[in-house]
UniProtKB/TrEMBL annotation:
Biased composition (Polar residues): 15-26
Record region (Disordered): 1-28
Name of the featured protein: Tektin
GO biological process: cilium assembly; cilium movement involved in cell motility
Species of origin: Collichthys lucidus (Big head croaker)
Keyword Ion transport attached: no
GO-annotated cellular components: axoneme; microtubule cytoskeleton; nucleus
Protein location: Cytoplasm, Cytoskeleton, Cilium axoneme
Main localization of the protein described in the UniProt heading: cytoplasm
Amino acid sequence: MSALPAKPGLRHSVSEWNSNNHQLSDTAEHERYVSNVIRQEGRSLRNETNCKTTWDESDTSRRLSDRIWDVARWKDTLEICAQKVDEEMEALTLSKEQTEQALAATAVPLEVSSECLTLRDGRRGYELVTDPVHEQLRKEVELIERVQQVLQQHIDKAFEQLCVLQEARHQLTADLQNKMDALDIDMTCLSLTKKSPQISLKTNPTRIPPGSSTPQEWVQFSQYNVAAAEEAMHLSQQMREDTRLTRAQLQNELDTQRRATEFALRKRNHHEEQARDELEWQIKNTEDEMAEMESDIHGLDADLQAKTASLKLAHTRLENRTNRPGMDLCRDEVQHGLVDEVHQLEATIMALKQKLSEAQHSLQKMKLHHSRMLQDLSRKQEALSLEQRSMNTRTRLKSPSCTDKTPVLLVPLTNSSGRSNLQLLAQDVCHISELGRDMTKGETWNYSSSYQDIAATNGESVF
């Protein structure tokens, strides 16, 4: 029988086989140990990361809640401040309207005073005097012009302050709108969970956006806006109070000056009526005297004619007696009596002519003065008529007037979700319509009041 052929290959010994078995067992145990360690570490890591993630998510939610509370608190603060600014703007606008009404109300008094001055310039002759009425009217015109200037300055200041308040309101509105948008975003972030369908991985989410601010800068920005608005409101309140006091003071000055002017006008009217009545009395007496003088002149003329006839008679007798013949041409008692009669008649005629001339001259002077008095009476009546027209013109200062309040337009402010949370004042608050209002609503003076009481009120003497 033939031998089997030997198979090629490396053969190991039993010891190598045993060693290999031990090596495989040791390696398996080592790998299982390592695997067990890794598994334990993985479980520990999973537990640790789960806790860490859960804690981080909870801490982030807490921080979001705190941030939402801070933003909501500042939002409420800004809303309250914005509401106060709106109220202050409305109050300042109303004060500005009242000042404009007061300014418009000075147009009628200025027109009345100027018209009175123009009317009184129509006086003629000695009636055109610079009396207390002229001085008071001139003072009244100067006072009204000064009042208009002061009121216009307050209106300009109120307009500038309204612009400052509007700017502060705009800053508050922008900050408030940002707060509301940020609040919506943070509330949306707080409502998201791991199961929300809106979540996804983003590109470089940890980047710092340009224009980012620190929490300190965030707080300081809102604090600055609120502080600026409060300072503007404080200045506006002071301005409104100053304007109110100024209006009251100027109104008192105007009323005082108006009463002084009307008192001077009534006093001057009284004096002119007295002068007119006196002149009318003088004219009447002069006319009576002129009538008597004319009657006496007629009497003097008649007597002169009679004396002339008597003188003619005496002259004729003397002339006829010169024709006596011879010794009968005697200077007898008749001759002496006729001569004395002629001398007496000539003296009488001369005296009558002298008195007639004086009477005619006096009558001519009275007629001339009578004409002057009539002319002066015409001027006095014209001046008195102008004074009456001036007093009637000033009655326009007591006509009542009403004022209307212009409504302020408001627009809603909404956040990104469409919710309306605040009313904002419209941008165009600077153009306000002017309404007329009469400057006086004082008492109506009674003409029958005693001049002593009126003078005591105005600090003047009566006559």
